[in-house]
C-alpha cells in the first residue's frame, strides 16, 4: 500500500492521510511529506529516525508570520533581565547565570529546544514502530517471511519519519505559544534564560498592563527557573529521567491495531485519525508508569510552585504584578493546542496538577524558616520535599526548625525498622562467633604452647 501511495498508483488521497496524522495538507507540504517518505524508503537499511525532519518542520512553522526582533526590543529585554537579576538577588540565595539571557525568535527557540524534545519522544516512536513491525511479522503469510526483514525496516523508517514530522509540527506550534525557555516547566534550555519578544508582545495584548511591566515579570520568572536548574545540577537529569522512564513504558495494543486494520477503509481516514487521537491504541498505564508519573508530577509541581513564590516575592514592588501572575495561572491551567498535541503524541501532560498546593507549601516554609533554609532543600534529591510534605507543610517546617536548633529528628517507622533489622543481624552474628568452638572456655587457663 505504501509503495502504491508513493508511486501515485493508489486511490488513497495523500492529503487525507496527512490530515489523519495531524500534518498540513497544502500542496507544498504534501510534496515535502512525500519526498521525506521516499527518502526514508531509500534509507531504510538502519531503521534509524531522522530527527532533522522535526527540526526542519518546526523551524519552518516558526518562520511563518515571524516578526524580526528590533534593536529597541533587545534593549528593552536586556534592561528587564538586568532589573530582574537585582530583584532576584534579594529573595533567593541562588547565584546568577554564567551566560547572558537571550532574546530568541520562534524559529531559534524551536532549533535550540529540539534536542530535548527528540530525547523525550524517541522511546515512544521506537515502541510504536516495534508494535507495527511485530504485527507485520505475526500476520504475514509463511511464503513471505523471507521478505519480512526488508519490509520491517521500511515500515520503521516510514513510521519514524511520520512521527518526526508530527513532533516537528507540535514543537513548531509550541514556538508560537510559549514566551520563554522554561515556559512549559521542563528544562528545555541548559543553563540558559530566554524570552521570545513576539510571543511576549502577544501575551500582553488586551491586558491593559504596560509592556515594560509584562516584560519584567516574565523576565523574573524565566531567570528564577533557570537559576534553580543551574543551582540544583541533579534536577535536570532527574526530570528527564522521569519523563524517559514514563515514555519507555508506553506500549501499543497490537490487537487493537489488527482490529483497526481488518476493517480499515483507506479512503476514510477519519477512522484512523480517531484511533490515533483517542488513545485506544495505547493500553492502560502500568504500575511502573504510574509511579514514574507520580514522581514527575510532584517534581514539576515543586519546581513551578517554587518559581511562583520566588517570582511573587521579587516582583512585589511591581504595580501590576498580581494581574500578570493571574494571567500566567489561567494560561497555565488551560494549556495551548500544542501542549494538547504533545500529550496525544507522547502520552504525557506537561502541566502539574498539584501546583497550587506546592506553592502554598513553599510560602509556608518561607514564612517559617526564611528563604535561605527554603532554598537549601534543593541541594540534594534526598532533601527535596515529598508529596507527603505538600500535603502536610507543618511537619516539614517542624523538621526544619528542629534541624536549625541542632536537634536530632525523631526516627520514623522506616528508621526504626532498619535499626531493628541491623540489631538482629548483629546479635545473630555475635552468637555464631561465640558458639563456633574456637574460643577458650572461661573456666580453663590458656594452653601453654
UniProtKB/TrEMBL annotation:
Pfam families: Zincin_2
GO molecular function: metallopeptidase activity
Gene3D superfamilies the record matches: Zincin-like metallopeptidase, N-terminal domain
Biased composition (Basic and acidic residues): 420-429
Record's keyword terms, sorted: Hydrolase, Metalloprotease, Protease
SUPFAM superfamilies per the UniProt record, alphabetical: Metalloproteases ('zincins'), catalytic domain (SSF55486)
Residues covered by region (Disordered): 420-449
NCBIfam families to which the protein is assigned, alphabetical: putative hydrolase (TIGR03624)
Name under which the protein is recorded: Zinc-dependent metalloprotease
Species of origin: Paramicrobacterium chengjingii
